[in-house]
Design a protein that fits this description.
Strand content: 15-25%
Mean pLDDT: 97
Number of helices: 19
Helix content: 25-40%
Oligomer: single chain
Shape: globular
Number of strands: 21
Structural class: alpha+beta
Bound molecules: ligand BES, zinc ion
Distance between the termini: 47 Å
Strand order of the largest sheet: 4-7-2-1-10-13-12
């Protein structure tokens, strides 16, 4: 008997749960799901235990399919893992039926008041299960080394739609309630289980795509993502046929904690992508790329997260190169490199250099706390180093063979390396792969980015750009990120007068600017910082803005008071992460 994953109670000697039939009634008043899960096992059980993951679930009854009770015990809650739900199976059970209720503070769910939505009339509910939150809404073996198919029936208030990252089956209105049925025939890792309930409408984008959003947002969203087909075509040319049939997008309310989440068939994205200039579609390229790298071939557990995100960053840049050209891809790669270097330095200063390895060791560590851009951008650089060594043509064959070999499966770093050694003999030794995998920081000689546009931005240095200078948002972004800090107050003041950074609708540019301003003591931006922290839930923006406030004693107390005020509107994951960062900061 052995645990499969440091973040799951799943045991490899127990039966496998291979399919789930889920029914849930969504109750906005009590903020709970009243649910029944039928878990189908791979084969009739032998007499013995079946350990499942759960978090804050109230288990009402467990039985077999014929309603014969099954004995169970619910363990004490571990702060990272949650509670082990241990079933004592008799021999011959093929299906386990669990009746349960979720907690109002289930970590996967955010319940929004009507005032927190764009429409302001109806409540909203959504899930975010990666990395290990599925267990707070569904008891199962919550490890990406296992896959499930599922069927679901959601009962919601009739004015609302219930969407799932799955195939639509039917919707039926019965009195005040609507019953929506969805099914996912392709086996997926449990962290990809996802749904949203709200006042939602769709617009068609392409033959395989539509975008969903609240009615007042949906047309802007359709415009922003109009070019989706080009990306799908680019993805398929690079990585093989798209395996999930549809690629729809759901634009979330502003509190969504991520830029995007690659839920299969229905990518969830932050509304901050609606910059009105299509400049943020790279996030769509990224989530689309996960259809291959992540959803089709999945990291075995969070210690191999770079296999998901490093590969996906690589694929995102390749798709961007096809759709927008090599210069755009190079600028994005340069922004990534800058973020990576900054993050590696931050970890080193905090004595957390171990989190800058590609293969990490996370027993007892919450994956949400370990999250950073390192697996993304160091992972991408590692893959690009291999590409540089063998040439693009051979690398592309290698990538396709990797995706083919581990299709609908899970991979560890060790398995990836063994596969690479067979496919590209000698290459790992030639680039000192061990240094990349188990070493800290970015190895010397990592590939660097070059392009004419990048060189032009670099040449701007930290001189004040002339009024009227027109750059793309990505160029501004990069220039702002590379500015030394603190900058003189007069510099910030002039910049603020010359360019609409404080008021721009492009959040990437805005946040890069606000960070420069805060680190330079240019406190005229505080009202805007406060507004952003109070209305946007994307952690990519919240974390650095709070960090910039905490940096200076003059604004540290303000960070805490803004957090006190805004915390109830943050997603539980964002709230937990920020609470940790605030607690770790002195004073
Ligand atoms: N899968 C991630 C988001 C995630 C990671 C959620 C870990 C929970 C735990 C998603 O694909 C992602 O990487 N999103 C990025 C977008 C990007 C890199 C373009 C984000 O949210 O910023
Ligand atoms: Zn990703």
């Amino acid at each position: 008997m052995a645990r499969l994953d440091p973040h799951s109670y799943a045991d490899d000697s127990h039966s496998k749960v291979i399919a789930v039939d889920w029914e849930a009634r969504v109750d906005f008043a009590s903020r709970t799901l009243e649910a029944t899960a039928l878990l189908e096992l791979d084969a009739p059980s032998l007499a013995g235990p079946l350990d499942l993951d759960s978090r804050k679930l109230t288990v009402i009854a467990i039985s077999d399919a014929q309603d014969n009770p099954i004995e169970f015990s619910l363990g004490a809650a571990d702060p990272v893992l949650g509670s082990k739900l241990s079933l004592m199976l008799p021999a011959g059970v093929k299906t386990v039926k669990i009746r349960y209720r979720t907690a109002p503070d289930a970590s996967a769910l955010q319940w929004l008041e009507p005032a927190q939505t764009a429409g302001g009339k109806h409540p909203y509910l959504f899930s975010q299960c990666q990395a290990i939150h599925t267990r707070s809404i569904l008891p199962l073996q919550d490890t990406p080394s296992r896959r499930i198919t599922y069927k679901a029936k959601l009962t919601v208030p009739a004015p609302l739609r219930a969407l799932m990252a799955a195939g639509f089956v039917s919707r039926e209105v019965v009195g005040e309630q609507a019953v929506e049925r969805w099914a996912m025939p392709q086996p997926l890792a449990p962290y990809l289980f996802a749904f949203a309930v709200g006042e939602l409408e769709a617009r068609k984008l392409g033959e395989r795509s539509m975008v969903w959003a609240e009615p007042s947002v949906v047309d802007a969203a359709a415009w922003e993502f109009e070019e989706i087909d080009k990306m799908l075509d680019a993805g398929e040319a690079l990585f093989g046929a798209y395996a999930w049939e549809r690629f729809d997008i759901l634009v979330m309310p502003p509190s969504f904690p991520y830029g995007g989440m690659e839920n299969p068939r229905l990518t969830f994205v932050t509304p901050t992508l609606l910059a009105k200039d299509r400049s943020q579609v790279r996030v769509i390229a990224h989530e689309l790329a996960h259809a291959w790298t992540g959803n089709l071939v999945t990291n075995s557990n969070a210690e191999h997260f770079w296999l998901n995100e490093g590969w996906t960053r690589y694929a995102e840049l390749r798709i961007t190169e096809v759709v927008e050209g090599p210069d755009s891809a190079a600028l994005l790669a340069a922004i990534c490199r800058h973020d990576l270097d900054e993050t590696v330095e931050r970890f080193a200063r905090a004595g957390q250099g171990a989190l800058t390895r590609l293969r990490t060791h996370l027993t007892g560590v919450d994956p949400d706390e370990a999250f950073s851009v390192v697996p993304y951008d160091k992972g991408e650089l590692f893959l690009r180093t291999i590409e540089g060594k063998v040439g693009r043509e051979r690398f592309d064959v290698f990538a396709k063979r990797y995706l083919e070999k581990f299709r609908f499966g899970a991979v560890t770093t060790e398995e990836f390396l063994a596969f690479t050694e067979v496919e590209l003999p000698g290459v790992l030794a030639s680039i000192d792969a061990a240094r990349w995998i188990d070493g800290e920081g970015v190895p010397e000689g990592a590939p660097s980015v070059r392009s004419a546009k990048l060189a032009a931005v670099e040449a701007m240095g930290s001189a004040l750009p002339p009024a009227g200078l027109e750059l793309s948002s990505t160029e501004w972004n990069l220039w702002l990120d590379r500015l030394p800090r603190p900058m003189p107050r007069a510099f910030c003041e002039t910049l603020d007068q010359r360019f609409p950074f404080t008021s721009t609708g492009n959040m990437e540019v805005k946040v890069s600017w606000l960070r420069v301003a805060l680190s330079s003591g240019y406190d005229d931006v505080l009202p805007e910082v406060r507004r952003v922290l109070g209305t946007v839930g994307r952690m990519k923006y919240l974390v650095p803005l709070y960090a910039a406030l905490l940096e200076r004693t003059e604004t540290a107390a303000l960070a805490r008071s803004i957090f006190e005020q805004a915390a109830p509107s943050y997603h539980p994951i964002a709230r937990a992460v920020l609470k940790g960062r605030l607690a770790a900061s002195p004073a």
